[in-house]
Amino acid sequence: MRRFRVLSGLAALLAAGAASAGCADVEGLRNDGDLGTAHAPQSLWRDIRPDPPGPGQEPGTAAVVPGLPKVADRNIRGVDPVAVVRADVTAATAGDGGTGRLVDPRAVRRIALCTQAVDGGPDCPVRPAVLQDVTGDGKDELITALDLDGRLSELRVYSVRGDGTIARILSRRAVLEGVEVAAEHLAVREPTSNPKYVAVSDYAWDPGAGILNLSQLTLDECSAAAHGSTSCAPNAT
What is the 3-state secondary structure (H, E, C) of 60-85? Predict the structure, then answer.
């Protein structure tokens, strides 16, 4: 499986210009004919700009989950993951007024299916928790997801701060084709409109911001598509 970096519009434009100028081989320049005219990118709706994010909606910010007891020794292993997601969903819903900016409006109804059982019960849409150190401090973080339907999910990663509070350090609403954790990186694989490719968002710990920040966005060639599969499996690494 090959991975491709997403090219910027400028790089693509330069590549097109180079192609139109002709190709060089061992015998010198040759004319490949008319390859078309390179045009500058056309900016759409340049007079329309989105409103700035409201309080609590700024990208790249961690959020302490309210209503949870502090964690002794920063050991998240004894924390109930369903309780953490429930408290986070409740606070986010109150914060965005049900608009879906912070959490999908269906999340409250979905989390209500979870019981007080250790695993949330058979109908609980919260995925089994994964404990992994993704910040490099030797302490595990809590990685889980709330499935909203058969396709869309809310991916959440939580860390225990020095004062014992639990903070959300990553929130991502996505179609989770795959989630991979390795070497303090978390990669989220999502389908694209082209079944031959899957988008891979790589997140790495940003100590200054106190969150998992997007560090790289790439495209992976989906070998499964060549065999008629509708799923692009994660890399076998």
Answer: CCCEECCCCCCCHHHCHHHCCHHHHH
